[in-house]
Every structure is written in structure tokens, then in C-alpha cells.
Design goal:
Layout: H1 23-58
Length: 66
């Protein structure tokens, strides 16, 4: 097993150097990041919903002992 498998990798282009960006570019970059955050939140919510449904499917009925 390769130890590199467990090293978290930075997302491509993140963090982006900010010093050379204009105010308008910084605002556009922030807006793009906020849209990406919303996209990630939506995907997390979808996956948590699927997981909850799967857990409910495999949960023993109420009152039943394992």
C-alpha cells in the first residue's frame, strides 16, 4: 500500500495567489467560490439524504431486537 494514497491533495488552483488580482477579479473569484460552496453543500445534502434512506432501509423495525 502506498502512503501517498492517504495524503490529502489540494484542489487544483487552490489556494490561488491573490496579490496580483484586481478588486473586480477578487470579487469575481469570491463569487465563483461561493457558487462552488453552494454546489458542494447541495451534493452533501443529497448524499446525506441517500445515506439516511439506506440506513432506514437496513434498520430493524421498531421493537425488534437484534
Amino acid at each position: 500500500m502506498d502512503d501517498d494514497e492517504f495524503v490529502p491533495r489540494a484542489a487544483p488552483g487552490l489556494p490561488r495567489p491573490l496579490e496580483a488580482l484586481s478588486v473586480a477579479d477578487l470579487e469575481a473569484y469570491r463569487e465563483a467560490l461561493e457558487r462552488e460552496i453552494e454546489r458542494v453543500r447541495a451534493e452533501l445534502a443529497r448524499r446525506q439524504s441517500v445515506r439516511g434512506a439506506a440506513e432506514a432501509l437496513f434498520r430493524p423495525p421498531s421493537g425488534e431486537r437484534r
